[in-house]
Specification:
With about 140 residues, this protein is of the alpha+beta class. Helix content is about 40%, strand content about 30%.
């Protein structure tokens, strides 16, 4: 157990280092604000959607991994999807907790993504759903 925790902590530091290096590269190149976001999930039910746009897909993936690993207390996380030039939101079957089924949806606007997440969640699970990650837009 301790070996797994140590390995996951090393992974977090690796992802943090990658994210830091990518941000330094961006600052040095004076890159315009990015349009990439990412979504990650953990084995223990965490769903994590980046809340800001990143200049590259790899930076968005790293940020999603760092966030997911932090919220899941170092459980195994997987980046499930990356986004560009769209909005995304997550709804979960109420009450929204780690055990609740979830639905990720995209849309052209924040409200479109939120509405789609809620309706798709309800239609998929035939239960009341709630937004657990409000819509975030990834645009330049």
């Amino acid at each position: 157990q301790e070996l797994k925790i140590a390995a996951l902590q090393r992974d977090i530091e690796t992802y943090r280092g990658t994210l830091s290096n990518l941000r330094e590269t961006q600052a040095a190149a004076q890159t315009v604000v990015g349009s990439f976001g990412a979504f990650a999930t953990s084995q223990d039910g965490i769903v994590f959607l980046t809340e800001e746009s990143f200049p590259s897909e790899s930076e968005a993936r790293s940020a999603a991994m760092v966030g997911c690993l932090q919220f899941s207390r170092n459980k195994s996380c997987t980046v499930r999807r990356t986004f560009s030039e769209t909005c995304a939101a997550v709804a979960r079957v109420a009450p929204g907790n780690r055990a609740s089924d979830w639905q990720l949806s995209v849309g052209s606007t924040q409200s479109n993504a939120e509405d789609s997440a809620l309706s798709t969640c309800y239609n998929s699970h035939n239960k009341r759903c709630m937004l657990t990650v409000p819509g975030v837009c990834f645009r330049r």
